[in-house]
Amino acid sequence: MAYELPDFYLPYPPRLNSHLETARAHTRAWAARMGFFDDPDIWGPADLEAHDYGLMCAYGHPDCAAVELNLVTDWYVWVFFFDDHFLHAFKRTKDLKGAQAYLDRLDLFMAHDPPEPTNPVELGLKDLWARTVPAMTDAWRRRFVTVTRDLTQESMWELFHIESGLVSNPIEYIEARRKVGGAPWSACLVEHAVAAELPARLAHTRPIRVLTETFADAVHLRNDLFSYQREVVAEGELSNSVLVCENFFGCDTQRGVEITNDMITSRLHQFEHTTLTELPALFAEHAVAPHEQESVLRYVKGLQDWQAGGHAWHLASSRYTKARREHGPLNVSPAHVRSGLRNFSHRPYTETTVRLPQISMPFTVRDNPHLEQARANSVRWCREMGFGDGLPGLPSTALWTERQLTSFDFALAASGLAPDATAEALDRATDWLAWGTYADDYYPQVFGASHDLTGAKLSNRRLRELMPLDGLPLTPAVNAVERGLADLWARTAALLCEEDRRAFRRGVEVMLDSWEWELANLVQNRVPDPVDYLEMRRLTFGSNLTINLAQIHLPRRPPDALFRTRELLALANAAADYGALLNDLFSFQKEIQFEGDLHNAVLVMRTFFDCDVDEAVTIVNKLMTARIAQFEHVVGTDLPAMLDARGADDETRSSVARYVTGLQDWMASLLRWHAQTTRYPETELRRRSAVRWTQGPTGLGTAVRRIHSLLPMGAP
């Protein structure tokens, strides 16, 4: 269990607020008034003094006035007291029912007319809410309610894991830790502390989301390194990244510490990359006014200050048992710089191969009886849309050949993901799969090779116009991608109510937007950060879109409220990750060697861990196996418990069961299709590559890029 703290990546120096002593005195008196010292088994005045949350906030918010620092410090005293109060009352007793009732009541104190408090946590929240929200807009208040509710309600996730004895897989852990760890909540308070509320129209954009999440991940993972001894060893908690790494990688504690620290560094590099490359584009695209830009940049600076200050406080506070440190002060090592440069050092078109591992699949494929008819109809539809025609500006160059239109066999995939669909519905699902795959090939070929990000954005704008919510599209389709989408939208939208039509369109839009992210990485030759990649991969793979295809024909979907529950979100994300990672294993050689791409989990893991392909494949396969095991656990344990707690009726349970079966069909069908399609085998890749050499400008351009990849870095 003994371990040594690593060198940390500390790009921002900590600074101390001059009102530190005022905040300490104020919050000591406030905590006493709220009753935080009433039970000495939880807290006493000496505990508050030793933990020194005034120092944490003075480090985290070095520039705010005394009144603001007092308020923010009180919030942190409350949240840490809540954590210890919950531990004392429910984690140790494992009282799940009492814990949920306790958490549900806290929601009542984030409202206009709260009830009378019954314990110190409720009293503190009531006081803080009244002092905080008047200064902010309704949009900020809604966001703050959400992150505060996440912070409290997700304590149940920790409690469930203690009760079950299960240690999370890494993907599940990062997602859940953001909520229960509270750093997104801290980010909201940063807006308040620096008087820089984010413009509402920008608050949910990708750059702002990534800045907030990278900040949160780095804060939480750093806390895990300092709190491992207290939480895992002393308290028996299972929610700690070091323990997650030990369990997942089969390594000792010190190696778990090193992997966690490498992830902190990677997330901070992503924070910096997003600030410098994505914010300027966001400002231009949304015509963000100078005063709004200033607010966003003050927010970024506030997150940097909190990151630096939080680290300094962890070193000073007695809340955490210190690990051994044999080599003096904690420094920034050259390895932190080198690890960031690795992301830009990939050489495209590198000769490579993958030995496919044994892939876990507990579900059986069921085929649709209309499969053969769908095969014939799909090939005919692809021809009519022009998937075998020349590319724009390159009439002699076809993206797909006649052979590929047939042998890719999208009907086989659709047959398994919608085994109970009508013939018409199966045709529609097959055509959506063909269109999505063709468009996914089209974007890097047409826009990636020329680094034409503007062209991709304009293309996406036109594609949106081809999906009207009412009436006919105002934009005429001019190429195969547009013709395919226009035809499919007309055939699909007519079947959906307005709410489902909006949701389905949103699924297409997020996939289109994610392709712009891929193109930007190609332009920069940047292998993505692992967390950013896995989360964006759900979008680039079109998981939401293809899962929806399997659900359209169902007689009744689960109620919308259920889709927002922890359990159904966990199911959908686990299935989406399994499908995307499965695709990455099969498509690695195609994408990396033959297409010069860099969006593949095997390459991402190879880059992050600085390992060979076989080891990276093993990691990806372990992630797939962990995700499908989590899926089965949720289906067998968490989902029934949630439905019982909600008193779900038979019709609701049946709709949830059909949804679960649809996800199982989706995953099983994907594996079968990847194993049988001609899209990925090396013999087919080499044959298609040889054909492209004869296709004029495109083949020549590919050859030139491959030759350039062999030159030394920086060669013209």
Question: Could you characterize what this model shows?
Answer:
This protein is mainly alpha-helical and 716 residues long. The protein contains 31 helices and two strands. The chain is globular and about 75 Å long. Residues 693-716 have low confidence and may be disordered.
List keywords for this structure.
single chain, two-stranded antiparallel ribbon, 69% helix, globular, disordered C terminus, mainly alpha, 716 residues, 31 helices
Short description:
This protein is mainly alpha-helical and about 725 residues long.
Low-pLDDT parts are: 693-716
Q: Mean pLDDT, nearest integer? A: 90
- Helical content band: 55-70%
Q: What topology, given as strand order, has the largest sheet? A: 1-2
Strand-helix topology:
Elements lengths: L19 H15 L10 H7 L1 H8 L5 H26 L4 H11 L13 H13 L5 H16 L1 H10 L5 H12 L1 H11 L12 H29 L6 H9 L3 H33 L4 H27 L17 H9 L28 H15 L4 E2 L2 E5 L3 H6 L2 H8 L5 H26 L4 H13 L14 H14 L4 H27 L5 H11 L2 H9 L8 H4 L2 H29 L6 H9 L3 H34 L3 H27 L5 H11 L4 H13 L7
Helix pairs in contact: 1-3, 1-4, 3-4, 3-14, 4-6, 4-8, 7-10, 9-11, 10-11, 10-14, 11-13, 11-14, 12-13, 16-18, 16-19, 18-19, 18-29, 19-21, 19-22, 20-22, 22-23, 23-26, 24-29, 26-28, 26-29, 27-28
